[in-house]
Amino acid sequence: SKSVVIPLFEKYLTPSDSDTRMARLVIPKKCAEAYFPKVSEGQGFPIVFQDAKGEDWEFHLRFWVNCNSKMYVLEGLKEYMTLMRWQAGDIVTFHRREPEGKLVIGTKKAQEYIKRESKNERKLKGKRKRKRKRFWLLIQSSVYIYINVYL
């Protein structure tokens, strides 16, 4: 039988997400709880992801309590981050391969999707009069989301 790759979520990298000295990625709580195995203890456990080339990567999924809520992180990412040349603004993609249930990780480089968006915007030139502005929005201490605002 054939495998089907199901998109789960995407995460825009913040400056702290792309810092190889910390080598960790903050995962939105709702996404971690919906798509990753349940973490019952703060110290967490190893979790394996496959990249686009089919290579397995073992990271560590854990959480800590922050303001009566859990903050999830993937740790041990230094080698993968370096290989993918993560920068703030890149997008990390998460998928699941079914029926195996294998988690898949990928990276979209900032310049790749910005070029694609720019090309699409040129096609729409004249059809849309609104201008788009991009912002990093601070949600709570060290938790940012990336938003597009049309003016």
Task: Provide structural commentary.
The chain is an alpha+beta fold and 151 residues long. It is 19% helix and 46% strand. It is built from three helices and nine strands; from the N terminus they run E-E-H-E-E-E-H-E-E-H-E-E. The chain has helices spanning 29-35, 78-84, 110-124, and strands at 4-12, 24-27, 45-50, 56-66, 69-75, 91-98, 102-108, 132-140, 143-150. It has a seven-stranded mixed sheet with strand order 1-6-7-3-4-5-2. Strands 8-9 form a two-stranded antiparallel ribbon. The relative contact order is 0.20. The model is unreliable at 135-144 (pLDDT under 50).
Key terms:
151 residues, alpha+beta, 9 strands, 46% strand, globular
Helix content: 10-25%
Radius of gyration: 17 Å
Uncertain segments are: 135-144
Binned strand content: over 45%
Biggest sheet, in brief? 7 strands, mixed
DSSP, total strands: 9
**How do the strands line up in the largest sheet?**
1-6-7-3-4-5-2
The backbone outline, from C-alpha atoms, is: globular
Number of helices: 3
N-C termini distance: 48 Å
Average of per-residue pLDDT values? 81
Structural class: alpha+beta
Order of helices and strands: EEHEEEHEEHEE
Secondary structure layout:
Elements: E1 4-12, E2 24-27, H1 29-35, E3 45-50, E4 56-66, E5 69-75, H2 78-84, E6 91-98, E7 102-108, H3 110-124, E8 132-140, E9 143-150
Parallel strand pairs: 3-7
Antiparallel strand pairs: 1-6, 2-5, 3-4, 4-5, 6-7, 8-9
